[in-house]
């Protein structure tokens, strides 16, 4: 648990540093964007430019298995770091696309052994987004879209008082069925952009393709980011 807190604190420090650097090093450019930013309440359609966010996310999710009329849901945790851009298409309507690296994990004691699951992946989300001005410097941006996720590595470590065994989900000698590297899915959510500096938001996502037979992932994103 201590390791998780350290990782989350480091990620928050990354966002804070990115925000300070973006604001202090690009003050003049930010002032110009404030007039043209598609998320601004006073922009004109012909002034729309792209804008972006560095972010970290907390990703609680479920390993959903359904076979033979029996459904099993197992809870996991996740952390993500990434960036995305908003590309205006028509007025307040645009495309938000980006990339994020993800670390999924679960630590559980079962049958007298510590089971530690770890998975590292990269995800590319592409969303249709709409900016809704709420007040000066405050915009709500709901979105809906799809994503593709590629799993680089997935392992399960089983440790007892006198032994430790590492199982690789992509090694057919360790599991009767190996894990699929690629999954596709859909997502929906909303982000709140606060001035030129911070974005907070959340969303729900669900795989449309299986990671193992009769098994998909589904969960939530809780985001905080630094705008640029």
Short description:
The chain is mainly beta and 228 residues long. The protein has 2 helices and 11 strands.
Number of helices: 2
Query: What percentage of residues falls in helices of 4 or more residues?
Result: 10-25%
Structural class: mainly beta
Radius of gyration: 20 Å
Unreliable spans: 1-36, 38-48
**What form results from the Cα inertia axes?**
elongated
Number of strands: 11
Characterize the structure shown.
Strands 1, 2, 3, 4, 5, 6, 7, 8, 9, 10 and 11 form an 11-stranded antiparallel sheet that branches. This protein is mostly beta strands and 228 residues long. The longest helix has 24 residues. 15% of the residues lie in helices and 61% in strands.
Features:
228 residues; 2 helices; mainly beta; elongated; single chain; eleven-stranded antiparallel β-sheet
Furnish the topology, listing elements before pairings.
Layout (H helix, E strand, L loop, with lengths): L1 H24 L1 H10 L14 E8 L2 E7 L2 E21 L2 E18 L2 E18 L1 E4 L2 E22 L4 E5 L13 E13 L3 E10 L7 E13 L1
Antiparallel strand pairs: 1-3, 1-11, 2-3, 2-11, 3-4, 4-5, 5-7, 6-7, 7-8, 7-9, 9-10, 10-11
């Amino acid at each position: 648990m201590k390791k998780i807190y350290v990782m989350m604190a480091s990620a928050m420090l990354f966002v804070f540093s990115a925000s300070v650097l973006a604001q202090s090093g690009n003050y003049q450019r930010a002032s110009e964007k404030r007039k043209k930013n598609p998320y601004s309440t006073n922009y004109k359609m012909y002034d729309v430019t792209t804008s972006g966010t560095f972010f970290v996310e907390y990703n609680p999710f479920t390993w959903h298995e359904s076979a033979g009329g029996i459904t099993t849901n197992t809870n996991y945790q996740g952390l993500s770091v990434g960036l995305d851009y908003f590309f205006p298409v028509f007025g307040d309507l645009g495309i938000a696309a980006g990339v994020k690296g993800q670390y999924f994990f679960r630590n559980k004691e079962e049958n007298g052994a510590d089971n530690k699951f770890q998975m590292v992946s990269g995800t590319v989300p592409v969303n249709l987004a709409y900016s809704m001005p709420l007040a000066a410097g405050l915009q709500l941006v709901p979105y809906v879209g799809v994503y593709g996720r590629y799993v680089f590595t997935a392992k399960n470590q089983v440790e007892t008082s006198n032994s430790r065994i590492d199982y690789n989900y992509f090694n057919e000698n360790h599991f009767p069925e190996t894990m699929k590297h690629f999954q596709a899915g859909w997502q929906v959510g909303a982000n709140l952009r606060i001035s030129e500096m911070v974005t907070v938001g959340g969303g729900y996502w669900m795989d449309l393709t299986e990671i193992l037979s009769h098994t998909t992932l589904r969960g939530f994103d809780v985001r905080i980011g630094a705008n640029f």
